[in-house]
């Protein structure tokens, strides 16, 4: 599939002013200015993240109420239940908060609870509240969930159970009747940074409690490895406080992680220094797999375990869940692709809706993502769950999936989500009608260009500008993530040296030159573009910079994203 190339525009005067101030490569200054870093002080904060620049937690609405309620619980020896979602953000939130509350409260009065994905579903559950009531808990601290649970939190109140909600999802107009709601996205919350993940909100509560109880910062900074893991996995913007927390959390992951993360690194076979990318693609899937395939409680048990041998045994359970998840994911993706490829109506749609009763509920979201990558259109994957059909939806960049699902609500039992992803349930007899309506809605509302994947290109560059110094500064821009992605470059009029070749029938090993300078590069799954290289005509290359270690030598290489014939040769 051809992609749209979007080369970001440059403010020449702002770029030159920054270049004069920083004395670094003009191309880098282009990129920094595009990211809002347009003077020396902003650049200093960006390149030298500082924990002292974290905001005062008491700036968050209801923080005083939350701290006061927990103080009361401690003084009255109330039982406190730390409750969280079954994904990475939820389990890391619960593990860090549970351990911290045990430092300021008698551990005999503190427990944690993770709802079971299939028996209880997402977020606050009635089973969880009933468990709290039966075991005399009078305070629940919910993490990464709760903002949309007004009815269940009202039910808890009838049982004498108070709630403190720590969440980062967009609130509805009606808020739960909780003692305190910590969520910077509330309209009347003046907290300066709005993009914390659930674990980040929990971290702010721990910070406030530490200030209240005179506990040293080492007693909550020790959970930065878990906070960074949540930030990476939840794909929140890598800006502001998230960037500071991820930067120091990544340092901790690489120097002194908790026994659980250490065990996951070992099982993931990572020998070198971890990047955020490793956290997203190696550590996070193993944590998520616990909730997808079995019970996410063991992810929390892994994070709170101090004994390295026991941690390794728990990590092996997650590793095994992840192997099962990969097998189910591969099998279902292959079946879904076959369904689409063998149906002329499905293949020509603007949307994808596929359904099989036997598909594993835990991986339908991943399969939806894979199908979206393949066909690049809004996608829903459905499976049978008891008497109903349930599934996950994924969007393409720029299209409001939630609104499209909302428009089909006449066929649904329930639904929820946001711009890019959603979950839904319906009766089996409504699947075909829902599928037809969803296709009609998407076809009527999606702009044609949104069905073509877009590559955001930060800057044009010539091969002569690429050197180790430039690469080293790019490395200092880490950690990368949304709104601070690894810089993507375009080099025009590149030619093949004659040494480029296809590797393993799928990938391309590039050996290319521009003017008098040659670079090697790797293009994964780009064998179908090899005819452009073979044409012997100049082409334009889109790439990021990378290092390649071979036979003890380290050299810069290009990680190729896309290529096309240069304009004069089209």
Task: Write up what this structure looks like.
This protein has 570 residues and is of the alpha/beta class. It folds into 3 domains: 4-15 and 455-569, Beta Barrel (OB fold (Dihydrolipoamide Acetyltransferase, E2P)); 57-317, inorganic pyrophosphatase (n-terminal core), CATH 3.90.1640.30; 332-451, Roll (Diaminopimelate Epimerase, Chain A, domain 1), CATH 3.10.310. It is built from 21 helices and 19 strands. It has helices spanning 12-22, 26-34, 40-47, 63-75, 88-104, 126-134, 150-158, 198-213, 218-221, 224-233, 240-255, 259-267, 276-293, 297-304, 308-341, 344-347, 364-375, 401-406, 431-445, 468-475, 530-534; strands at 4-7, 79-84, 110-113, 137-143, 162-166, 180-182, 352-355, 379-385, 388-394, 414-417, 421-426, 454-457, 459-460, 489-496, 501-503, 507-514, 517-523, 539-550, 553-565. The strands form 4 sheets. Strands 3-2-4-5-6 form a 5-stranded parallel sheet, with helices on both faces. Strands 7-8-9-11-10 form a 5-stranded mixed sheet, sandwiched between helices. A 5-stranded mixed barrel has the order 14-16-17-19-18.
